Amino acid sequence: MRLLDNVNVSTRMENTVIRIFKRVYADPCDNSLFVSRIQRMCKDKFLSSKFIKKKYNEHVLVDKVILGIMRPFDLNVDILSAVYCQVVSPQPMCKVPSFAMNAFKHFNELYSRYETKKNLKLLPQYGTAELEVTCYSQLGAIKRSYDEENSKTKIERGERKIKVVVSTYEMFVLDLFNSNDFLTGETILKETMIPKDSLLVSLGKLVNDHKLLIKRPICKEIKLSDTFYVREDL
């Protein structure tokens, strides 16, 4: 789970952990299915994935539509073999936003050139995304009168950008608020098809940890019947 959730320090640290596992779990002949799987997962993550990511970066500069704005972004992909990392995909599959699915398909096209006998499967329950959130605040209003009958009011808004690291599921939720002022938990569940328990966890983190959303009614418990809004005072 540490490898899947990117909770690791370096290959050197992982090798140290593997040596400890060998002393604890391996038999006198140094055989252990558990340890061999961990070793292969490390190889996939730190060697195989590194190679294909390098080839991908050499192939093209990723330039996709993110949140309605054309701008380049960095794509970091880990590829693990299903034989050694037996992860169950959520059923049914959640709805992946078009910008994320396009990035996956674009990467998969290149990957298939090097690994013709392997098929990639997207696991949206893992991974993180670094997002740049643009916050707008009303600084004040300036009223200019040309005469008694005609007047014009100009409202100036301040713009502030903050960066936040969220899970993939949390990114899917935030994407909905680009076109909605508020959403109920039931609507978010229907639109994303994220598993209910995972969605409640994601909403809780967006409200309580990242403080990007607020909810009504105000209480600690997160429910699908709650209504969620983007926090204006970020």
UniProtKB/TrEMBL annotation:
Gene3D superfamilies named among the record's database cross-references: Cullin, Chain C, Domain 2
GO terms, biological process: ubiquitin-dependent protein catabolic process
Cullin family profile domain segment(s): 1-207
GO molecular function, one term: ubiquitin protein ligase binding
Pfam families, A to Z: Cullin_AB (PF26557)
Signal peptide segment: none
Family to which the UniProt record says this protein belongs: Belongs to the cullin family.
Protein name stated in the entry: Cullin family profile domain-containing protein
Organism: Aphis glycines (Soybean aphid)
